[in-house]
Design brief:
Order of helices and strands: HH
Radius of gyration: 25 Å
Helix content: 55-70%
Oligomer: single chain
Strand content: under 5%
Number of strands: 0
Length: about 60
């Protein structure tokens, strides 16, 4: 896959330009990663709290 129009790699990187796809969408990928990370942590905290509450109720009721 080629994203630029050049014939060889000789020269400075500024003359060649970006050589990877989706240039300019890095901020979108970072944002998606942060949103996923926060959602995972919130979900994990919720599930752990529910499980701890269930275990607490089990032990308080005398279940062993």
């Amino acid at each position: 896959m080629m994203t630029g129009s050049f014939t060889d790699w000789a020269g400075t990187i500024a003359d060649i330009g970006p050589v990877y796809p989706f240039v300019g969408t890095e901020w979108l990928l970072v944002l998606a990663g942060v949103v996923f990370w926060l959602a995972w942590h919130i979900s994990q905290l919720s599930r752990e709290s529910a499980k701890l509450k269930m275990e607490d109720e089990h032990h308080r009721s005398g279940g062993g």
